[in-house]
Design a protein that fits this description.
The protein is an all-alpha fold and 113 residues long. It is built from four helices and no strands. α1 packs antiparallel against α2 (19-48), α2 (19-48) runs antiparallel to α3 (56-81) and α3 packs antiparallel against α4 (92-112).
Length: 113
């Protein structure tokens, strides 16, 4: 789905933009997919194994924050590509919620040590 919504339209714009802009625009969704896979793996490890322990909650919160940031990057790339992004767009809430979850995860982790 990411390939059809972001990558293919991005490469159709190559002739209109310079190479650096296109390569950076390509790097965000592709590297976010890798980060998404790591976060899903973290969810699986800390949800379905015995590693829940004392810091399992902090790591679950951190993985949730990563997922929200990945979704925020994907929606940002999509809205920018379609020229529908503006300052104050509701998709920015994904970033804010992700940052709050990062702060909560660090707080929980420090409290559990």
């Amino acid at each position: 789905m990411v390939i059809s919504l972001l990558i293919i339209p991005l490469f159709s714009e190559v002739s209109q933009q310079n190479f650096v802009t296109t390569s950076i625009s390509f790097a965000y969704p592709s590297l976010d997919l890798l980060l998404f896979l790591v976060a899903v793996l973290g969810f699986l490890v800390f949800t379905f194994t015995r590693l829940k322990g004392r810091i399992g909650v902090a790591w679950l919160l951190m993985n949730a924050a990563i997922l929200l940031n990945v979704l925020g990057d994907m929606t940002f790339s999509y809205t920018t590509l379609n020229d529908t992004y503006y300052n104050g767009h509701p998709q920015e809430l994904l970033f804010h919620w992700g940052y709050l979850l990062f702060a909560l995860a660090f707080y929980v982790h420090a409290r559990e040590l």
